[in-house]
Amino acid sequence: MLASTLGNLKSYKHRSVKDEMRENLMRRLREGTPVFPGILGYDDSVVPQIVNAILSRHNMILLGLRGQAKSRILRGLVDFLDESIPVIAGCEIHDNPFAPICRACRELVAAMADKTPIVWRGRDERFVEKLATPDVTIADMIGDIDPIKAAKGGHAIGSEMSIHYGLLPRANRGIFAINELPDLAGKIQVGLFNIMQEGDVQIKGYPMRLPLDVVLVFSANPEDYTARGKIVTPLKDRIGSEIKTHYPVNLDLAVTITAQEAWTSRGDAKLTVPSYIQQVVEAIAFKARADQRVDKRSGVSQRLPISCLENVVSNAERRAIISGDLEIVPRVADVYAAIPAITGKIELEYEGELKGAETIARDLIRQSVQMVFRRYFPATDFKETIEWFEAGGNVKFSDEDSSRTVMAAMEVVPGLMERAKALGGGVAAAEFILEGLHAIDKVGRTEERGYSAIERKASADMYRDYTKDINRYKKPLN
Fold this sequence. Notes:
two-stranded antiparallel ribbon
């Protein structure tokens, strides 16, 4: 049974929060337990740096573009805290019973000694998170004078007993996380620096000593952190470790992350998401991050493929409900139907703005299909299929047509269903091949005709005119 008074706590070993996290982390490392379960792709880069920071008892900052799991990592630090710790009952800043720092608790311990009431505080209660915004005040972060509290208690306005504590003191003996640190006003950052370095703070001109036991962790966008220089130098100098996060380094890892995070389970319905569709969805983010029309400073969040895959599955689910298909199988057409999940996740440069977000999204999907298509068919000959289209054949269907309808249309295309067997067969595989041939300019596609022979006449005429002009200029002058 947990102790309820100070007298029953004599055997309790008190540690600072940083020592507590350090010891719990060391035990986890010895046991071989995953340090950050559910965080993928950082085992050889980010995680070792965080481990070193905790072992060094550092405050730390995570630098990275949006959608790189910075907030999740900060929240995961809670797992390195003890399951519960004793605090003085009723204390606003959760004082240590053996070394209280607020005046009210010091007086309580002096008066009640071993009978001082104790409560236990869980690890989740010891994590305080704040999104930094320009309107955050020193009162929000540190505290303010409370006239009502002073009047009710009969205290002087400048007394420590008249203070209403802010978020940082209330995180005492825990972890205080600030997201997007550069957005915090300079004077607030100076207040944080004073607390970190000296334990001193001034509230409305009244100095007070507040040696908090707290781990400070921050997140920031590297563009804000370095280019704009919005973190005051004294605070930056006292952040022990600066750790840079990153996007997934390869397509297969990114697919695994998206599959873990996306909501694709649709009750009792039978759902099969082909691997090539998952890869196409993931490749959209990879292509967007490399595209000159997309703002690199903003980044392309990992939330893009997560939201896109959810929309892809939903469109396939809608089709199955309407058409009566017994199985939900997403197709390439469903990726195009998920464009609303893409356009809101990319910030465009001037050239991209001129073309429009939807046009850019369609182009990214086509590039992604081409990338994945070449992975599966690096040198496969589709001559028979292409010649059928060039002879006048065409295939047209919509994303709402049932699998039976689409299959009947595709079975007439020579060699198509045979090639689809390499992908597991079925309608989705055949449509992916057609879209892949379109992406590499072997087959055309229009809204009116569907998949058909590619229109090359205009291009050939343009080339002839261009060649004629070049030859004309090559003629010697008379």
